[in-house]
Amino acid sequence: MSHEQHADLIKTLHECTEACNHCYDACLREDDVKMMTECIRLDRECADICSFLEQALSRGTPFATELAEVCAKICEACGNECKKHDHDHCQKCAEACFKCADECRKLAS
Amino acid sequence: MSHEQHADLIKTLHECTEACNHCYDACLREDDVKMMTECIRLDRECADICSFLEQALSRGTPFATELAEVCAKICEACGNECKKHDHDHCQKCAEACFKCADECRKLAS
Amino acid sequence: MSHEQHADLIKTLHECTEACNHCYDACLREDDVKMMTECIRLDRECADICSFLEQALSRGTPFATELAEVCAKICEACGNECKKHDHDHCQKCAEACFKCADECRKLAS
Amino acid sequence: MSHEQHADLIKTLHECTEACNHCYDACLREDDVKMMTECIRLDRECADICSFLEQALSRGTPFATELAEVCAKICEACGNECKKHDHDHCQKCAEACFKCADECRKLAS
């Protein structure tokens, strides 16, 4: 079944969703919030698509490949933005995003 | 701004989400529900991605093109399934899906 | 059917989702973004619950009353925050939120 | 921070979302799908609100209590329906739902 076949990716998507939502929350609390606007924006994009794909995979979506391809792109973009910032939440988020992008690309290819 | 630029598509996505969710609900009430399982499944896939894209466009997502491409494929698949069934809710849903697929393709290309 | 019974509220939820997502996007582009962080945060909360309730009503959810009660509270809170800011997108968003809160309360009671 | 404070509930919500989406998928594949329509419907309601609350908690929502209260009710209803069916996926889903309802009620109270 789909949810077993994709168990590793579902876990990774879950961790990436968490990391992005936490980074979003933490960025909004930073003093230098003006510098973090692109990070805030991409964190939400990334959390939303990861959560969407997680649900889709666990219900056996017939569109796993197509959704994973888009998700990989969004994770990559979010990771690249987060990587620029020294905040611990940004660095951890970048790591979660790049891991998730890699696993999504494997499914998409 | 993004939400004005995409006002027509946002409206179409909203109508497609509604049609799919209504068709999903109505299929689950049909006597021949066994025949409707693929329709139920695709209605949910389609409602969820249309609602997702609608929100993404209205918040100025940088991934409009990529998301519209996936959305077009899912709308097309849902429309093709709904078209097979004579129920009024299926025929109306097919129409909403094909219209939405067309508009998504325009954005994606 | 549920989606006809709740047609007016579904439309209002859709408009509130749009207004909140647009306000979120616009707040992130403002020079005084530091002043807008609570607005950004509540815009997302409100857009997400309104979009959720819109989908739930259109699929005939058995939990319309309970969800509408929560949605009313979130719309109210978002409206109160937006009302504080002079930006046109905030004032328009406050108006959409208060209208939506009112209609949700009617369903919830 | 919110995502640490609620780490256990976030994990439980994630597991409940998975169980509900898997049960939904499996119900649609059953021969006796006509008997499973209420289960299919509630699985989706429950997966969607659990996924919503999971995201909300991980972004530090100010509405944790109110959302957890609604989520507890929906988990309870889904668990009660799943419990009626002997399918392994239904029994496992019921268990996940009741556990999640309990934890949500703790947060709500």
From TrEMBL, chains A, B, C, D:
Please name one Pfam family that this protein belongs to. Answer: Csp
Entry-linked InterPro entries:
Csp_YhjQ, YHJQ-like
Gene3D superfamilies, per the entry: 1.20.1270.360
Q: What is this protein called?
A: Four-helix bundle copper-binding protein
Origin organism is: Salipaludibacillus aurantiacus
Q: What is the lineage of its organism?
A: Bacteria, Bacillati, Bacillota, Bacilli, Bacillales
